[in-house]
Write a structure and sequence with these properties.
Blueprint: E1 3-5, E2 7-8, H1 17-24, H2 30-37, E3 55-57, H3 67-77, H4 79-83, E4 89-96, H5 100-118, H6 121-124, E5 126-132, H7 134-148, H8 156-163, H9 169-185, H10 193-209, E6 233-240, E7 246-249, E8 262-264, H11 265-269, H12 276-281, E9 293-295, E10 299-302, H13 312-334, H14 341-351, E11 353-360, H15 380-404, E12 408-411, E13 418-420, E14 423-425, H16 437-448, H17 460-472
Parallel strand pairs: 4-5, 4-11, 5-6, 7-8, 11-12
Antiparallel strand pairs: 1-3, 2-9, 6-7, 6-10, 9-10, 13-14
Length: about 475
């Protein structure tokens, strides 16, 4: 298939050594990109093949399945496991909120924690992640690590160490003026902040994922060398600027009937591909912090959280298709004329599936709600637009919770989860792309309760985690010690 670059509104290719020295000295990212560029490149302008753009070809095996066909094959790949299960076979759909690096870190920490408690079984029961903004990034990281680790769990401590890297400086390098200059002049001379961001995440993750984050998006799910249907699907929700509609990039073909008023980004790619990093960050392009993504010159994409910041709407649409197919398959297999041995076994498998939702909200539990002070005519419209976005998010997740009732779990960071010198405090959970060690500790201890006095523990997260473990079939109880987790 042809290669494609998801370009950015502020351009492109590396400039000469002078530009490198002037514009890159702040972040010193040259060592980060040298390997990807094939060594040191010193040239005037572009055109010599030394490029920092993300151009990747669609994997040869990546003939995308329709989502309904993928669901059928996903169930069939677990047929014996489902049939032999002594209780209903749990299938999880995870929706994960946006919120910059705190959302990414919270998502990765929760998934790695549940995986570590179940020996990797949790993600095997996850059919898909539906994310917005930073939540998509955290989910995409876990998808890449799932494949790289061949289904083995990765320790939460390794995840924490990864998120201690500096993901902010490359964005600031462009934001402080360089991108403004090049986008204004139209000179495609060096990578913009979005491409720098893709590269820095690929590089920092490469020690754990063997470079998977830099490979073509769909190849993660269509690799003949790795067992199919083991890595959860990723639905990267974005915002289509021209239409105001939600856009979805996923490694499957989507039906307009099941995802109404949503733009399938794969259709616009027309058989070409983007890197996993680029496709994931298509969901995390907050205005001004990141430039809009531009595809074929006519389609622009911004942060998925601008449309709906929980991923719950797409998750519910996915659930509706999943249950529809289960009911249809049961009716079809139940027909006496179609009762082959294979289909009879599949009938049993479908009848034993039970779908659950896990919602990962990264705002602190019991944190005070924001109030609007001194609302005046000048600020009222901006405040209203912002709160409309917040309201859409709360509505989407609330609908999901109401419909699923006892099959819905939400985990979120707790408040006073860090103790220092005998006193509790709540480190700020940032929205940008840099997170402090204390903030990471707060997220981690919201799950493990390491070093937290028993009288100060809020039991809501451990109770929910234990319920999830019980559903999966693991008798492990959440420990309040720090040992290894």
């Amino acid at each position: 298939m042809d290669a494609v670059a998801l370009s950015h509104t502020s351009g492109g290719v590396y400039g000469n050594c002078f530009l490198h020295c002037v514009f890159f000295r702040i972040a010193d990212p040259w060592e980060v990109y040298k390997d990807q560029l094939g060594g040191d490149c010193y040239f005037i302008g572009g055109g010599n093949g030394c490029t920092g753009r993300q151009q990747v070809s669609r994997h040869s095996d990546a003939k995308l399945e329709k989502l309904d066909g993928y669901i059928y094959n996903w169930v069939a790949s677990r047929q014996n496991e489902i049939i032999n299960s002594e209780k209903p076979y749990p299938v999880f759909i995870v929706n994960t909120y946006g919120g910059g690096i705190r959302a990414a870190a919270w998502t990765s920490l929760v998934v790695s924690y549940l995986d570590s408690l179940t020996g990797g079984e949790f993600q095997r029961h996850v059919f898909a992640y539906s994310g917005a903004s930073g939540g998509t990034i955290g989910a995409s990281v876990m998808c890449a690590l799932r494949k790289a680790q061949k289904g083995k769990p990765i320790a939460p401590q390794q995840v924490m160490q990864f998120y201690k890297n500096d993901f902010l400086t490359p964005v600031l390098v462009g934001l402080i003026g360089r991108d403004v200059f090049f986008s204004t002049t139209g000179w495609d001379a060096i990578d913009d902040r979005a491409r720098l961001q893709d590269n820095i995440w690929e590089t920092h993750l490469s020690s754990l994922d063997s470079g998977i984050y830099a490979k073509e998006f769909c190849s993660l799910w269509y690799d003949a060398k790795y067992k199919k249907y083991d890595v959860p699907l990723l639905f990267s929700n974005t915002y289509h600027v021209e239409s105001g509609l939600k856009g979805i990039l996923a490694p499957v073909k989507l039906s307009p009937r099941h995802f109404p008023q949503a733009l399938d980004v794969n259709e616009k790619l027309a058989g070409s591909g983007v890197a996993l990093s680029t496709g994931s960050f298509l969901s995390a392009r907050f205005p001004y912090i990141s430039p809009a993504g531009k595809l074929d010159g006519t389609h622009h994409f911004l942060d998925g959280g601008l449309k709906e910041n929980s991923g719950a709407e797409t998750a519910l649409e996915l659930y509706s298709l999943f249950t529809e197919l289960i009911e249809h398959r049961e009716r079809k297999i139940g027909n006496k004329e179609e009762k082959s041995i294979k289909d009879s076994l599949l009938y049993i498998a479908y009848s034993k599936i039970h779908v659950y939702f896990l919602s990962l909200n990264n705002t602190g539990k019991n944190d005070p709600e924001a109030t609007t002070k001194n609302l005046v005519e000048f600020t009222a419209p901006v405040t209203a637009l912002y709160n409309n976005w917040v309201g859409n998010t709360l509505k989407a997740d609330s609908v999901l919770k109401t419909q699923m009732k006892g099959d819905y779990f939400q985990l979120r960071p707790l408040k006073e989860m860090v103790w220092h010198e005998g006193e509790a405090f709540s480190p700020v959970l940032p929205l940008g792309w840099q997170i402090s060690d204390f903030a990471l500790q707060r997220l981690h201890e919201s799950l493990t309760y390491c070093n937290i006095p028993e009288s100060k523990r809020d039991v809501s997260n451990p109770e929910k985690i234990n319920q999830i473990l019980k559903i999966i079939g693991n008798d492990f109880r959440v420990s309040h010690s720090c040992g290894g987790n």
